[in-house]
Write a structure and sequence with these properties.
Layout: H1 3-9, H2 25-47, H3 51-54, E1 61-66, E2 79-85, H4 92-112, H5 126-135, E3 146-150, E4 157-160, E5 181-184, E6 188-192, E7 198-201
Parallel strand pairs: 3-7
Antiparallel strand pairs: 1-2, 3-6, 4-5
Helix pairs in contact: 2-4, 2-5, 4-5
C-alpha cells in the first residue's frame, strides 16, 4: 500500500511525524510494509479474511456524473452511475485499526533507535501487535552517525578523515577511528543518524 493511501485511511499523518521527518523516512516505509503484511496474514489465518475484507463497509457508495458535462452539448443533462465503491476512507473501524498499526509500528522504531516519546495506541488488538513485533526486521543500530559531505567539483583536494562520536564532547570515551578520504577543499558537512559509514556526495 503506498504511503499516501495509508495516510488517507488512518487518523495519524505519518509524513508529519517528528520521527519520520528526522531522517527515518525510508525506515518507516519499509517497516509499515512489513507491519501491514503481518496483520493481513494474521487476520487471514485467524478469520479467513484480510484487512479490507474484515473491515469492509456494509454498503457501497455510488459515484454519479452528468453526461457530456465538459463538452459542447445541447441535449438532456442526464446523470449516470459510473461506479459503485466501498467508502473505506470514511469507515471508522478500518481507520481505527490502521491508525493502531501505524502508531505501534512507529513506537517500535522509536524504541529501536532511541527516539524520545511514544505514541498512544488504543485500537490495536494484542495479537495483531504481537504479529507486527514478530515480523518487523530492524537493522542493527549502534548509535553511530553518518557524515555527509556536499561538495562542488572545483577546488584543490585535501585529505579529511574524522570520527563522529555520538557522545557529548567532554566524555572520557574515545571514538573509533574512521578511514580518511580525499575530498575537495570546499563543501558543507551535514550529520544524519542511523548509518555507520562516511558518504561522499559530489
Amino acid at each position: 500500500m503506498p504511503l499516501f493511501l495509508l495516510d488517507a485511511l488512518a487518523d495519524y499523518k505519518i509524513h508529519k511525524s517528528k520521527f519520520y521527518q528526522s531522517g527515518y523516512a525510508d525506515v518507516v516505509h519499509t517497516a509499515l510494509r512489513q507491519a501491514l503484511d503481518a496483520v493481513d496474514a494474521y487476520l487471514q489465518k485467524k478469520e479467513g479474511k484480510g484487512v479490507f475484507q474484515k473491515f469492509q463497509p456494509q454498503e457501497q457508495t455510488q459515484i454519479k456524473r452528468k453526461v457530456f458535462q465538459s463538452a459542447i452539448y445541447d441535449g438532456d443533462q442526464r446523470t449516470i452511475v459510473i461506479a459503485s465503491v466501498y467508502p473505506y476512507a470514511h469507515h471508522c473501524p478500518l481507520r481505527m485499526f490502521l491508525t493502531g498499526v501505524v502508531k505501534h509500528t512507529e513506537n517500535l522504531l522509536r524504541q529501536h533507535y532511541g527516539f524520545a516519546g511514544r505514541l498512544k495506541v488504543t485500537d490495536l488488538p494484542h495479537e495483531a501487535a504481537g504479529a507486527i513485533e514478530a515480523a518487523l526486521t530492524l537493522p542493527d543500530y549502534n548509535g553511530t552517525q553518518l557524515a555527509e559531505f556536499d561538495l562542488s567539483d572545483t577546488g584543490s583536494p585535501q585529505t579529511a578523515g574524522v570520527a563522529i562520536p555520538t557522545r557529548a564532547i567532554g566524555d572520557n570515551h574515545s571514538a573509533t577511528p574512521q578511514p580518511s578520504a580525499t575530498i575537495p577543499s570546499s563543501g558543507n558537512l551535514k550529520l544524519s543518524q542511523t548509518s555507520t559509514c562516511v558518504t561522499l556526495k559530489s
